[in-house]
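1st attempt posting a full record on here, be nice pls
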Amino acid sequence: MLKSNVFESYFHHFLCFKSFKHLRFILIFKLCVMQWSLCVVESLIQEHIIRTGCGSVSVTVCGDQEKPPLITYPDLALNHMSCFQGLFVSPESASLLLHNFCIYHINPPGHELGAASIGIDDPVPSMEDLCDQILVVLNYFRLGSVMCMGAMAGAYILTLFSIKYSERVTGLILISPICKAPSWTERFYNKLTSKTLYYYGICDLVKELLIHRYFSKEVCGNPEVPESDMVLACRKLLDERDSINVWRYLQAIDSRRDITEELKSLECKTIIFVGDSSPFHDEALQIAEKLGTNCSALVEVCLFIIHHYSCNFLYFPNHYI
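the predicted structure (as tokens):
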């Protein structure tokens, strides 16, 4: 079997041809390289259940563990498949991420596929507890400094981790990040979602609240325009979540503290993606302002779930990635 760097050398060689008649061949060759890379990575996927001081956490490892580590953390009621799959199946982003990193997908407690319901009497972890779980994961795999990528609540947890353990983080990729304690509006929606989850499970109302948390209005549909396939698929994926486990994560999110002033202590480079209609748009802008242009780059787009960020950060200077 040829190694990936051999394929890359051939690919870069073919890119030297400028005539249009070679364009189709080049594109086909590039697609073959991407598909081959994904097949190799799929053969290297490992599932781990790691015990921590505040419960067990599921970690999915994708790729060669000799490569630099990149850890991910998803938002409420999502796991690495439902939150980040759209990113990692994109040929452009896959060629960058999977060729250069070993991915460690950390799922919130009870959010992995097929997870059993956590006991209702078990203590609910705080955001600080979830942050400290990441340190246990890094020590379990004997990882030093890592890249971090998180979406919304996951972005908060990874940012908090970067503040507490700055020596363990080389860079951050944050999608619609949050940094403040919940506003009155968010707290109202969180309480509504929490009560409904507790008594009625993942019902249509909960799905509707979560869908509008993840997606922009353009893809959520209306009486004249049907929902996008992505939203419909997300609704089905939400059926797989255990309502009590989602409720526990929401309790942690709703009790988070304001870390705005602590952002000044962040030393790592940060890329921030935020949708212009995201409910956390203002907080993302505030994070970018606190970090400054020397340490961060802000990308505003018109849609705001990680599925839509398939390859936007591929075009940033290397010192940001």
